[in-house]
Design goal:
This protein is of the alpha/beta class. About 40% of the residues lie in helices and about 15% in strands. The longest helix is centred in the first third of the chain and has 21 residues. The protein starts with a strand and ends with a helix.
């Protein structure tokens, strides 16, 4: 089985980005600037944002972190978004999700300037993506597409099954893989919590993408021999033998599948690092106008 090592691939891409930024700096050009808005004290969000800031530093980007309290009003958050929209030095920014329950995520998302939407979540960018026009692609699906391309995994004519229909992963992933071009040109089936006979679909998948947030739900009996598995999930499972009291796992039973499939992403170290690198690629694109 081939391990689709997202961590190693992301380091390769970051080195390429750094070379490009160094060339921009040498030519006296504008250094890409990524900003992040972090609301509250969600531990996972802090980790994600810290990784993004660290990656910016590695490639030579300028980065800004705007911290807001958990009880910030929606009006004040929207005011920060408006400032970022107007700041000519900021090329792209993200508002880290999830947001506190008293804030409407859709309202915030609609306020983001699509030209600075390096997360690729605004309706404008989703619409452009659906039409196959130039846009900022959602970070996780874009990272997966980059991984498929760099590892030489052919998608044209393949049966692809996507587990999960979220706006962040499942739905855009299905759109991207069914578009013309490579990676793409696949026959895509999207399964979700209301899908009947899911086993029928998963067992015929040449490529299976799991993004359902259920620890190790995909087992060996659900996939065919030689399939390619992309595991988007990252879950905490109690494990008294670990110092932290838990272990991280994906939506796929990695150990149960590794002798049956042809290629698979590990968790951690698979899709996660590629998501971060996608933000960097989008930010570099945004800086070029």
């Amino acid at each position: 089985m081939q391990v689709l090592d997202g961590k190693a691939l992301s380091e390769t891409i970051k080195a390429e980005l750094k070379d490009e930024v160094d060339a921009i700096r040498s030519a006296g050009g504008k250094i890409p600037h990524l900003a992040a808005v972090l609301v509250g004290d969600n531990p996972a969000s802090h980790v994600y944002v810290r990784n993004k800031v660290r990656s910016c530093e590695q490639v030579g980007f300028k980065s800004s972190l705007i911290r807001l309290p958990e009880d910030v009003s929606q009006e004040d958050l929207l005011a920060e978004v408006a400032k970022l929209n107007a700041d000519e030095d900021v090329d792209g920014y993200i508002v880290q999700l999830p947001l506190p329950k008293h804030i409407d995520e859709d309202t915030v998302n609609l306020a983001i300037d699509p030209k600075k939407d390096v997360d690729g979540f605004t309706p404008v960018n989703i619409g452009l993506m659906t039409l196959g026009l130039p846009s900022y692609l959602p970070a996780t699906p874009n990272g997966i597409m980059t991984m498929l391309e760099r590892y030489g995994i052919q998608t044209t004519g393949k049966e692809v099954v996507v587990l999960g229909r979220s706006n962040i992963v499942g739905t855009p992933m299905s759109i991207l893989l069914s578009r013309k071009g490579e990676p793409g040109n696949a026959t895509v089936t999207m399964c979700h919590s209301r899908t009947e006979g899911m086993l029928f679909h998963t067992k015929r998948a040449d490529i299976l993408i799991a993004a359902i947030g259920k620890p190790e739900m995909v087992t060996a009996d659900m996939v065919k021999e030689g399939a390619v598995i992309i595991d988007v999930g990252i879950n905490r499972v109690e494990d008294a033998s670990r110092k932290r009291g838990y272990r991280l796992c994906g939506d796929v039973d990695y150990n149960g599948l590794k002798d049956k499939v042809s290629a698979m992403t590990p968790v951690p170290g698979g899709v996660g690092p590629m998501t971060v690198v996608s933000l960097l690629m989008n930010t570099l694109q945004a800086s070029k106008g």
